[in-house]
Structures are given as structure tokens and as C-alpha cells.
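Justification of resources, computational component.

The compute hours requested in this renewal are based largely on the per-chain cost of generating structure records like the one below. Each record pairs the submitted sequence with a full C-alpha cell output. That output is archived, and it is also reused by downstream analysis tasks.
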Amino acid sequence: MKILLLEDDTVLSNILVDFLQENYEVTHTYSMKEALGLSEKSNFDLYIFDINVPDGDGISLLKSLRSFHDETPAIFITAFHDTKYLKAAFESGANDFIKKPFDLEELAQRVENIKKHFGLNSLLKLASNIEFDRQTHMLRCADIAYTLSPKESAVLHYLYKNRHRVVSVDEMLQNLWEYDEMPSPDAIRTLIKELRKYLGKEHILNVRGEGYKFE
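The structure output for this chain reads:
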């Protein structure tokens, strides 16, 4: 799992990177501007943002990301204890909030909760008879196993982790491909057509004029 950490406190950021790197791939930055650039270049599974950084704030950053249909789950960490910051964080699209100082095990549990809720574990049970391994790209439907291409795997996982809503083709293009290698919308539709062959049409619904939804 890939985490983008925005934290300007040198001591705390070093502690967090050392702790999180035991189990995850962590990219750290002190700058809001750099965090925005990193989020555009790579697909992260989780954001951990400090609210107050020298060149801006995590809340504004997350608002900007959400405006571009980036639904990557986000945890805010902050020294502020005023409830107005808590309210602003959740209104910006945050999924969790942790106040400094905090125990590292508390952060670990919050990350685990995010993983469970958004299907970020390696082996996912998509339905009673369907399992999907994100690392090996192996999809098992009943007793039949398929090895997905990396892009089929990425599309399937994106639909699954956003299963509570309809996902547009444009959103998948923006979040799953680099700008300079972005394919046509037809390429997405072809990938989904293949996935529906494996899973059955009932698991990936085509919502006319809007996009696709995992069921």
C-alpha cells in the first residue's frame, strides 16, 4: 500500500516514516505544493496530511484533490484541538482525524480501519465466491482463476474501493493513468468489458450517461 505523508515537523515526520515503512511504501514531503505534484504523478492508496504546513494547509490541498475526483482516503493529523478544524477537515473530504500528540499504535489502527473500509488489503473478497489478490493480479471466480493485466487490476480495484457510488470514465482516466500516457475512453470501456466477462455483468453495472458501479 502506498501512502503520501505531508508533515513539516522534521522529528515527527522521521518517526512516522520509520514506523509506517515497516509495512507500507511511504512518500514524504514537507510542502503542500510538492504533495499536490506527487499526487498527480503517482496513484496513492492513502493520504496522511498535517493541517498546517509552511506553504499552505492540508485542508485546502484535500479540497483541491477532491475537486479533481481524487477519492483517495485521507487522515488528517494536527496540533489544533478546536472543533472548527475537525469540522473543516471532514467537510473537505477527510475520512479520519487524529490529534497530536498521539500514540503510533493509534495511527496504525486508524490506517487498518481505512484499509478494511476501502478494500486496501492485498486479498479482497469481492463477493461470496469471488476473491481478488491486488499483488498477484489473480482473480478467482468460484473455481476459475484469471490473471488480470495490471490495468485490468487497477480498474477493478478502483471500482471496488469506490463501490458506494458511480465512477465515471473520465475519473478513472484521471486517477489511473499518467497524463502523458492517458488512453482514450474506449480503452477503459474495453477493460471493463473484459472484467465483466470474468465477473458477470451483475457485478459491474453500466449506469447510462454516468459511468460504472461495482455491486
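Residues 2-118 form a domain with the Rossmann fold fold (CATH 3.40.50.2300). The chain has a mean pLDDT of 91.
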